[in-house]
Amino acid sequence: MNLDRLDQRTVIKGATLPDGTTSDLLVRDGTIAELGKVTAKAGVTIDAAGLQLLPGLVDLHTHLREPGREDAETVLTGSRAAAVGGFTAVLAMANTSPVTDTAEAAERVYDLGRAAGLVDVQPVGAVTKGLAGEELAELGLMARSRAKVRVFSDDGKCVHDARVMRRALEYVKTFGGVVSQHSQDPSLAGPSACCHEGELSGRLGLPGWPGIAEEVVVARDVMLARHTGSRVHVAHVSTAGSVEVVRWAKAQGIDVTAEVTPHHLLLTTDLLSGYDPTYKVNPPLRPAEDVEALRAALADGTIDAVATDHAPHARHDKEHAFVDAAFGMLGLETALPVVTTVMVESGLLDWAGVARVMSAQPARIAGLDGHGRPIAVGEPANLTLLDPAAQVVVDRADSVSLSRNNPWHDRKLTGKVIATLLRGTPTVLEGALA
Q1: CB neighbour list of residue 78: distance below 8 Å, 6 or more residues apart
Q2: Model confidence over 121-171: pLDDT tens digits?
Q3: Helix 162-173 and helix 212-228, axial crossing angle in degrees, nearest 10
Q4: What is the 3-state secondary structure (H, E, C) of 401-430?
Q5: Which one is catalytic: 309, 324, 395, 410?
Q6: CB within 8 Å of 53: residues ≥ 6 apart
Q7: Are 306 and 259 in contact (CB under 8 A)?
């Protein structure tokens, strides 16, 4: 990579596009100005021979912890992790302290993201006040705020009252919003449930979290979406049964979308046998047959998107006995290598498919018009360059996140993000923050 900063233009030489062709790119004034053979000189020239170019990644499900838990993550540190992971936009979940359930709270997160300037941080609004599941939050005011909130979620808690969920779906329909549901029936999997219910949970003495607790909520919500004519998004799908419900709903023309996390595409519940709280996540890791169903559903389009559910935690919240530890794993910096390892190396997805599930579809679901766009002249230069052949052993100490609850530590993954551009400005070069 030649970083001769002559002007504000960027040239990318010899990149492989998602369709498999090779091209140079000239980026000027935040947009792609030329494709093909580029001879112009630029301030930044990136030698991309052998590198895969993708539209900038979009994450539908990121926990940035600010305000309230800046010891675990901040908007700035989370933005750094996102950029290093190849993301140009992330949706910041509402379970902060205070909860993002007002226009003012949404605008605060939005402004913090703009100040960081590394990725577009789009706040997710809470569905209910205080995530209590009882009274709708300021959905309309958040939608009309400077943050222009379009995705609403009580993530971490299920909107379990069908009447409240119906009203939320009816409300967001008026401005084209979507409700993202954490599907967990509390009568079937309560707050202490932490291990897939089965032989292992019984042997380990851990409270069981059966797949049916997810599936019944998914089924109810797709029927509510059909009844209201509104949009529902299923967060972090984890079971083969949920895949069946989503597939059926789409076949009926119901406006449902779904996401899967990198960890549910690769890790299985047997990892809990050592009681390592790093692997405590909600919904829990599932058996291999569920993992296989999730991979197939992502490949065939039943599951629309990969979303990280990046959930940083301070050491004093994670380093406990398994049942007492906080739920969640890091995900932003490793999402693309995990997808490369699981989906691309296996032939389940090509690079056009990766662009679809990690950029185009997430941007469409979130209503982010400037992201997830094709790599074409005149389009915003939100771009990610990946070395698809690089073999990387993950070291939690290398993370730019404030937290270290990294489930990929010491694992070998394929793929390394080399550069990330946000509207033409490099945020990452040579694999490090620019």
Answers
A1: 62, 63, 64, 65, 66, 90, 92, 310, 312, 332, 401
A2: 999 999 999 999 999 999 999 999 999 999 999 999 999 999 999 999 999
A3: 40
A4: CCCCCCCCCCCEEEEEEEEEEECCEEEEEC
A5: 309
A6: 12, 15, 16, 17, 18, 25, 375, 383, 384, 385
A7: yes
Positive or negative, the Cα torsion across 31, 36, 41, 42? positive
CB burial class (10 A; 0-12, 13-18, 19+) of residue 390? middle
* Contact criterion met (CB below 8 Å) for 289 and 329: no
Strands of the sheet with 305-306, listed across from one edge? 151-152, 178-181, 232-234, 256-260, 305-306
Q: Which two tokens stand for residue 73?
A: 């993550």
CA angle, corner 216, sides to 332 and 209, nearest 5? 60
Helix, coil or strand: residue 391? strand
Angle, CA of 108, 111 and 112, to the nearest 5°: 85
Task: Measure the CA–CA gap between 147 and 180, rounded to whole angstroms.
Answer: 18
- Annotate 128-164 with three-state secondary structure: EHHHCCCCECCHHHHHHCCCCCCEECCCCCCCCCHHH
Which pair of structure tokens corresponds to residue 345?
Answer: 């190396």
Whether residue 341 contacts residue 415, with contact meaning beta carbons closer than 8 Å, is answered with: yes
pLDDT per residue as tens digits for the range 325-362: 999 999 999 999 999 999 999 999 999 999 999 999 99
Q: Are 323 and 194 in contact, with CB atoms under 8 Å apart?
A: yes
Q: DSSP letters along 320-370, please?
A: S-GGGSPP-B--TTTHHHHHIIIIITTTS--HHHHHIIIIIHHHHHHT-TT
Find the helix or strand (DSSP H, E) in which 216 lies: helix 212-228
What is the tens place of the pLDDT at every residue in 252-305?
999 999 999 999 999 999 999 999 999 999 999 999 999 999 999 999 999 999
| Cβ 186 vs Cβ 150: under 8 Å | no
- Count Cβ atoms below 10 Å from residue 214 Cβ, excluding itself: 29
- The closest of 92, 86, 83 to 60, measured between CA atoms, is 92
Amino acid at 199: E
Per-position DSSP letters for 262-297, written without gaps between them: HHHHH--GGGGGG--GGG--SSPP--HHHHHHHHHH
Number of H helices, E strands in the chain: 13, 19
| Pairing verdict, β 383-393 and 412-422 | antiparallel
Give the Cα-Cα-Cα angle 44, 16, 365 (nearest 5 degrees): 90
309 assigned to active site: yes
Q: Beta strand 52-55 with 383-393: parallel, antiparallel or unpaired?
A: antiparallel
